[in-house]
């Protein structure tokens, strides 16, 4: 169990070592959520009928003494992106806890992170460039900075050693192929910071385990909504019917929290998915960043799997989900098959799965805020009558008692103002801006598919044209020539007769005249090219947007409980 962090005051406590806005331009500013006393859920509040106290709400009340303190959101390690998705020669911008940051790779191959504002005139450093010397250069006046934040060049004049000339450098590290950032001052000497608090997946360090289909997406709902969703096993057979599950597999969701603390909680679902065919599923909420479900079905089915979701708070009502699917198989050949599968196909599949709940979660989030989520115990806002809601209740206990309601405080009117208006469906289902354009797997795949579509069109048109010309020369041209020969000299008639005889001889040898065989071959090529064009034409839009109806509404199958 991880040792509980020392409580700090405030829903979004500022690192003490960071200067305030008036002390240094371009440093992070704490979101305006005032400190508040810890509000604990209580059973039997006035006006609440005790008969309506659900099992999940009862657990909320019973657990109120189990958690204490506050989390310092700025003192946590957050995964920002997979290493492969951050360009080697370009700055990478991101928004973490409502703070603009820029990540870049210096000449030594070390990833660095700055607050994304030049101390000179506050323009985004992410619009600049990485110089051949491996320094970050501001796009406005060319100031240059080393990885530790020290300014090394002021082309217009000035003293680069002045304290206010330095960029604000944050702690940055690489673990398990992901770039992590902590919004705390980086070591002044540029050395590697302490990474002991990074939430890794230990199994990936063990023999036989491998990660497949690592992907991410920026999602238009809050970090808390993401965690509440992915930790809830009971929604999968219904929301994701026809994609990753089936309604018919819904069974006994007797979820049970087995251990809890400021670090999060553990739980077990004894039956597990697919009505127990795979064995028990163990869940860990490794607060405040990692949710993982683990199934060890090596004895039953010959494999083990982890579904891991890292939730990263970007701003109110917006988060990044980084998804990993580690596997282990008894059969050593199966991992080799995974290596030949195109990863972009799994990215499209994961985006489609995320589409299936993005719209109603965006709406649920606002409805929850309007009904007082964060100002009231979760059991008063939600009606959670069954053990299937135990993990959601456990997460809400942690969020309320330990995390001050979340990075932005409770979901109240202030939260709604910061989250902004409700987005239209087109934006909610966007794939390109939320993933494709910055994904090192999908961006080149999209380019290649567009090239393949154009090439298929060109080949298909050319092949069809050759087939048409071949048939014309074989059948139409001799008829026209024969007609002309009938009115012309006898020599022309003799020539036409010889040509017909030659054609007849060719038919006798091969079955088809050469030009007909050529036309048939070209027609086959045109047909294949047409199929390729059609497949590309249908696949390419998936890199840009999701679409209705979702799988659950177009795949047959109804919930039929066993009697």
Automatic annotation (TrEMBL):
Residues 78-181 form the Rieske domain. Its main location: membrane. GO terms for cellular component: chloroplast; membrane. It is found in: Membrane; Plastid, Chloroplast. Keywords: 2Fe-2S, Chloroplast, Iron, Iron-sulfur, Membrane, Metal-binding, Oxidoreductase, Plastid, Transit peptide, Transmembrane, Transmembrane helix. Coiled coil: none annotated. The chain crosses the membrane at residues 451-473, 515-533. GO terms for molecular function: 2 iron, 2 sulfur cluster binding; chlorophyllide a oxygenase activity; metal ion binding. PANTHER family: CHOLESTEROL 7-DESATURASE NVD, IRON-SULFUR DOMAIN CONTAINING PROTEIN. This is Pheophorbide a oxygenase. It comes from Chlorella sorokiniana.
């Amino acid at each position: 169990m991880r040792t509980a962090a020392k409580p700090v005051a405030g829903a979004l406590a500022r690192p003490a070592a960071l200067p305030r806005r008036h002390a240094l331009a371009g440093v992070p500013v704490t979101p305006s959520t005032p400190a508040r006393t810890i509000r604990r859920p209580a059973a039997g509040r006035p006006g609440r009928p005790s008969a309506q106290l659900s099992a999940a709400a009862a657990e909320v009340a019973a657990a109120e003494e189990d958690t204490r303190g506050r989390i310092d959101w700025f003192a946590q390690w957050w995964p920002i992106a997979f290493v492969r998705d951050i360009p080697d020669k370009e700055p990478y911008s991101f928004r973490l806890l409502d703070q603009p940051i820029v990540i870049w790779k210096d000449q030594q191959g070390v990833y660095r992170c700055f607050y994304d504002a030049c101390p000179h005139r506050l323009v985004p450093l992410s619009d600049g460039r990485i110089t051949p010397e491996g320094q970050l250069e501001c796009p406005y006046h060319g100031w240059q900075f080393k990885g530790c934040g020290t300014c090394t060049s002021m082309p217009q004049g000035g003293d680069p050693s002045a304290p206010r000339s330095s960029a604000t450098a944050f702690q940055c590290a690489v673990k398990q192929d992901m770039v992590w950032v902590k919004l705390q001052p980086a070591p002044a000497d540029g050395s590697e910071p302490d990474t002991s608090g990074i939430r890794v997946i230990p199994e990936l360090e063990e023999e036989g385990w491998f990660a497949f289909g690592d992907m991410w997406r920026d999602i238009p709902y809050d970090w808390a909504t993401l965690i509440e969703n992915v930790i809830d096993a009971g929604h999968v057979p219904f929301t994701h019917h026809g994609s990753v599950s089936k309604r018919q597999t819904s069974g006994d969701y007797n979820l049970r929290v087995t251990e809890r603390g400021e670090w999060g909680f553990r739980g077990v679902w004894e039956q597990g998915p697919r009505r127990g065919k795979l064995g028990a599923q163990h869940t860990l909420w490794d607060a405040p960043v990692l949710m993982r479900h683990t199934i060890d079905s090596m004895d039953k089915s010959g494999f083990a799997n982890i579904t891991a979701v890292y939730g990263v708070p970007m701003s109110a009502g917006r988060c990044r989900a980084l998804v990993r699917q580690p596997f282990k198989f008894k059969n050593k050949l199966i991992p080799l098959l995974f290596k030949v599968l195109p990863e972009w196909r799994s990215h499209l599949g994961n985006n489609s799965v995320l589409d299936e709940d993005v719209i109603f979660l965006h709406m649920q989030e606002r409805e929850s805020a309007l009904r007082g989520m964060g100002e009231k115990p979760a059991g008063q806002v939600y009606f959670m009558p069954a053990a299937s809601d135990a993990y959601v209740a456990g997460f809400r206990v942690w969020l309320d008692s330990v995390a001050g309601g979340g990075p932005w405080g409770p979901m109240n009117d202030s939260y709604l103002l910061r989250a902004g208006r409700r987005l239209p469906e087109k934006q909610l289902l966007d794939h390109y801006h939320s993933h494709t354009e910055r994904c090192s797997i999908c961006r080149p795949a999209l380019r290649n598919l567009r090239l393949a579509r154009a090439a298929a069109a060109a080949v298909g048109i050319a092949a069809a044209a050759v087939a048409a010309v071949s048939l014309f020369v074989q059948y139409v041209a001799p008829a026209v020539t024969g007609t002309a020969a009938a009115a012309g000299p006898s020599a022309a008639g003799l020539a036409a007769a010889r040509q017909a005889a030659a054609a007849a001889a060719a038919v006798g040898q091969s079955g088809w005249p050469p030009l007909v065989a050529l036309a048939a071959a070209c027609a086959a090529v045109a047909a294949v090219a047409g199929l390729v064009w059609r497949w590309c034409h249908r696949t390419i839009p998936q890199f840009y947007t999701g679409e209705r109806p979702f799988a659950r509404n177009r795949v047959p199958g109804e919930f039929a409980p066993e009697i």
